[in-house]
């Protein structure tokens, strides 16, 4: 089974807001990580290449990786995109539409705390430059704690909003915090997305679920040796991975808190969680 590292980034900045700092890497660290990927012999391919293989198309060659970025922070436009363009590397950027800045104002329709975010004009420019734009919900709510019209709005509404602005289909989705569940995945498939990414802190593989693609989260405290292990296809389990009892219990607890009006979020707590 060929392991495929699908790297998950959030912000790339020297001066992030304090709440975002644990999920931020510096530009220098990011460039060093891209160099490590190159030096390991891995070839960065578009996410759609992995999705095509997962859906029965031509198999992936050995030694490939995928780059993904969540939320839609402004540093992607000013820091990440120029570097990726210089190196000729593809990437997928998942957008929380309620957090983007509308013309002349600031986004206020998401659960993300304040941070410098992209605006819609910049998003269109990135799309024109070849960055794949994916959906990341409207408000960044943990998807497995909402149902009915709210779930539809987060999944379908986000897709329609992006497609209206970009003028073409948006086929990829990323679950906020990595959380999904069977009901959420059904809604994503019914909406017409062909792929969805989780977290899990696992390698993806040719046997992975295209609606629950495993990713490796790169954080501020990810040690270079750990990142090196990932580029050498070691140091993490490989998907598919059965959902643990702890993951199911954590989902039940979060749903209860959401029902009481006191939601909790955050990334998955251990390998194998969605």
Automatic annotation (TrEMBL):
Q: Which organism is it from?
A: Kitasatospora purpeofusca
Is the rRNA-binding keyword given for this protein?
Answer: no
Q: What is this protein called?
A: Polysaccharide deacetylase family protein
Q: Which Gene3D superfamilies match?
A: Glycoside hydrolase/deacetylase
Q: Does the keyword Oxidoreductase apply?
A: no
Q: Which residues form the NodB homology domain?
A: 63-274
Top-down, what is the taxonomic lineage of the species of origin? Answer: Bacteria, Bacillati, Actinomycetota, Actinomycetes, Kitasatosporales
Q: Which domain of life is it from?
A: Bacteria
Q: Which key words are in the record? A: Signal
Where found? Secreted
């Amino acid at each position: 089974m060929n392991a495929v590292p699908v790297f998950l980034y959030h912000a790339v900045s020297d001066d992030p807001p304090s709440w975002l700092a644990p999920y931020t890497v510096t530009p220098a660290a990011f460039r060093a990580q891209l160099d490590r990927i190159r030096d390991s012999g891995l070839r960065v391919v578009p996410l759609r290449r992995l999705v095509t293989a997962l859906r029965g198309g031509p198999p992936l060659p050995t030694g490939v990786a995928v780059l993904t970025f969540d939320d839609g922070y402004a540093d992607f436009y000013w820091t990440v995109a120029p570097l990726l363009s210089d190196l000729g590397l593809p990437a997928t950027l998942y957008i929380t539409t309620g957090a983007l800045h509308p013309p002349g104002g600031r986004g206020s329709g998401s659960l993300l705390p304040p941070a410098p975010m992209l605006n819609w004009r910049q998003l269109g420019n990135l799309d024109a430059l070849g960055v794949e734009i994916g959906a990341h919900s409207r408000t960044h709510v943990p998807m497995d704690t909402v149902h009915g019209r709210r779930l539809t709005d987060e999944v379908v509404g986000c897709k329609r909003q992006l497609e209206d602005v970009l003028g073409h289909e948006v086929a990829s989705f990323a679950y906020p915090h990595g959380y999904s569940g069977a009901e959420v995945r059904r809604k994503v498939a019914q909406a017409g997305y062909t792929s969805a990414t989780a977290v899990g802190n696992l390698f993806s593989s040719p046997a992975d679920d295209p609606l629950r693609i495993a990713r490796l989260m790169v954080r501020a405290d990810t040690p270079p040796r750990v990142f090196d292990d990932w580029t050498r296809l070691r140091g993490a389990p490989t998907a598919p991975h059965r959902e643990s009892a702890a993951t199911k219990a954590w989902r039940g607890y979060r749903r209860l808190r959401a029902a009481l009006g006191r939601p909790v979020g955050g990334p998955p707590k251990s390998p194998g969680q969605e």
